Amino acid sequence: MVQQQHPNSHKESGTADEAWVSVIRKMDEAYADLVRYQVQVEEQNEALEEAHNFVDSVQSAMSDVLIACDHEGRIQQVNRAFEELTGRTMESLLDQPMESLCSGESRDKLVQCLQRVRKEAVRDQEISIDGVNGPEPLALNCSPRFNQRGRLAGIVVAGRPLGELQCAFNELHQAHAELKLAQERLIQAEKMASLGRLVAGVAHELNNPISFVYGNMHALRRYTGRLVEYFDLVQSGASRDELRELRQKLRLDRAIADLDSLVEGTMEGADRVREIVNDLRQFSSTQSSEKAPFDLIHVVRSALHWITKESKVAIHVDLELPDKLEVVGHSGQIHQVVVNLIQNAADAVADQPKPALKIEAGSDQGLAWLSVADNGQGIAPENLPRLFDPFFTTKPTGQGTGLGLSISYGIVNEHGGTLKIINGAEGGAVAQLTLPASQPAPGLDESADG
Predict the structure, then answer these.
(1) Domain end: 228, 250, 283, which one?
(2) What is the DSSP string of 132-173?
(3) 149-168 pLDDT, tens digit each
(4) Are residues 252 and 309 in the same domain?
(5) 226 pLDDT higher than 90
(6) pTM
(7) Coiled coil where (predicted)?
């Protein structure tokens, strides 16, 4: 007697194969995205290095004095011409007040120039600086230097014989423009650096469902071998007693009972892998797509999941989130912002005896808001105004680029929202994010507007 195989077995096998092919294809696409962005990072680093070298070569070639100082007048950098003129190295001048370069009446003039430059540029102010061979008269031009937020970041002082600086200054301005362009591209590539910090968590998260699926497939392979052996005996015309004996020996009843749970578990593991890959692709997406409504709560939970999986310490997280909170924008970009805020909070509590975060969200007057609070040491008052400055970081060397908050601030501003970081009333820091909430579907109030 020949027993026919159930046609659903082929359908279930085909569905599982299709699911695996879909998962593998999505993983390949995500890996290709990572490789492409890594290449972009390397290209931008090379461009930035070339721009730095160009600026250094321009400064070295200048025969006129060039001094850069901070907003308080402390020297940050000088060119080779200044070193040769004064006989002092840049290392010995670093963080020295500008007025220490002069004496007597020239010292008072220079102090006045540094005060005036905060309001207006100073042109062709004649003073004398202490040089190798005595006082060296120079015509100084002082210009303020502002950061991206329009705040005074420092002062640039150029000393020259009349008529000779203009050409060199134009070359320096062009070099600065090229350097700025390279820096902007590097800032865009910081997104992938943030993604790199999550690779360990992603690998761990993928390993669990893949291991589960792998184990189920091994069990299915064993069961398949038993079924093949049994059906071969059926086709050979064995007696009912022989079939019953082999069925008991191979424990086919138990194997058949396990088939549904094995297939269901395998599909569940494959679906989990697909969800992980989809979240990873969402995080690595760019702003090329149009803005669209998305659920901010899903973004927050996804970001929190990655961060806690990667964290080396157990962090207690108190969540007060609505079921859903829709905003309009680029979900991948906002995901990057939220990851950065939660990551910073997690880093701030890493050394606390009882690390804890509190994450809240809601909406008010057309705005969606998100708050991420930690129980860390808080932020020094003098650092609060500088948190969003590019390359500023309070983390140890090698643990932060100083670009995360600056990029996040730009993303939120481009979305028409706000981003603030303050010290909490009970200690720690609080990051406060607001975004325009998604407009409700056209209703009674909007019908008149068409």
Answers:
(1) 283
(2) TTEEEEEEEEEEEEE-TTS-EEEEEEEEESTTSHHHHHHHHH
(3) 888 888 888 887 554 444 56
(4) no
(5) no
(6) 0.43
(7) 165-192
